[in-house]
């Protein structure tokens, strides 16, 4: 097996270990046993366990951050693009499911420990701007926080479920229809409350 093959196999074993136990609960000994190498091999390719984790998620983290920003701006400029933006995001998440789950739920103890909160903060910012532009004035920050939590928990449910890409995209489409209707109804309610207050 070439050095490149050994490195690739180590990363695959590490990914499965991190998914099963999180970064903090992951064991280098189990990773090496799964890959059929000694712990010395890890330090030949990586600085430490955290470096292994970073090698697995770095590209996905950068791409997801950039995609999130691009989709937020696209939806702000063209509100009707929301369902298409949702589909593009979920397609990316599904194609990088393991790495996304590591970033969002298994990264405590790594340089990516704050990634989920940064992503949520980016979404809260986008939701706030969207409400300001197309909704009913200045939205309640707690309402925005809850809406973002609901959206991301729904996305995580789709990532964790035993779904095909086609099922994920169809469920995303349908929840997008629901979200769009909910946004329109909510902003109408807020406008009514504001005019009465």
Can you give keywords for this protein?
single chain, 197 residues, 9 helices, elongated, mainly alpha
Descriptive notes:
The protein contains nine helices and no strands. It has 197 residues and is an all-alpha fold.
Give a short overview:
This protein has nine helices and no strands.
User: What is the global morphology?
Assistant: elongated
Beta content comes to under 5%
Number of β-strand runs: 0
What is the number of helical segments per DSSP (H or I, 4+ residues)? Answer: 9
Poorly predicted ranges (pLDDT <50, ≥5 residues)?
Answer: none
Classification by helices and strands: mainly alpha
Radius of gyration, CA atoms, in whole angstroms: 20 Å
Order of helices and strands: HHHHHHHHH
Largest β-sheet summary: none
Portion in helices: over 70%
Q: How far apart are the first and last residues' alpha carbons, in Å?
A: 72 Å
Query: What is the averaged pLDDT score?
Result: 92
Question: How are the SSEs ordered, and which strands pair?
Answer:
Blueprint: H1 3-25, H2 28-35, H3 39-45, H4 49-77, H5 82-95, H6 97-105, H7 115-134, H8 141-160, H9 165-196
Helix pairs in contact: 1-2, 1-4, 1-6, 4-5, 4-6, 4-7, 5-9, 7-8
């Amino acid at each position: 097996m070439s050095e490149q093959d050994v490195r690739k196999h180590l990363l695959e074993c590490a990914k499965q270990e991190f998914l099963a136990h999180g970064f903090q609960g992951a064991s280098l000994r189990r990773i090496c046993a799964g890959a059929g190498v000694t712990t010395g091999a890890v330090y030949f390719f990586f600085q430490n366990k955290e470096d292994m984790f970073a090698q697995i998620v770095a590209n996905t983290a950068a791409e997801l951050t950039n995609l999130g920003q691009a989709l937020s701006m696209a939806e702000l400029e063209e509100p009707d693009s929301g369902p298409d933006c949702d589909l593009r995001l979920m397609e990316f998440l599904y194609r990088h499911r393991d790495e996304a789950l590591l970033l969002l739920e298994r990264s405590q103890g790594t340089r990516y420990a704050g990634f989920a909160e940064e992503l949520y903060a980016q979404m809260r910012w986008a939701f706030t701007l969207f409400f300001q532009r197309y909704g009913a004035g200045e939205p309640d920050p707690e309402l925005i926080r809850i809406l973002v939590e609901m959206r991301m928990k729904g996305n995580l449910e789709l990532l964790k479920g035993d779904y095909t890409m086609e099922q994920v995209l169809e469920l995303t489409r349908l929840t997008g229809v629901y979200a769009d209707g909910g946004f329109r109804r909510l902003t109408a309610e807020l406008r009514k409350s504001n005019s009465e207050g």
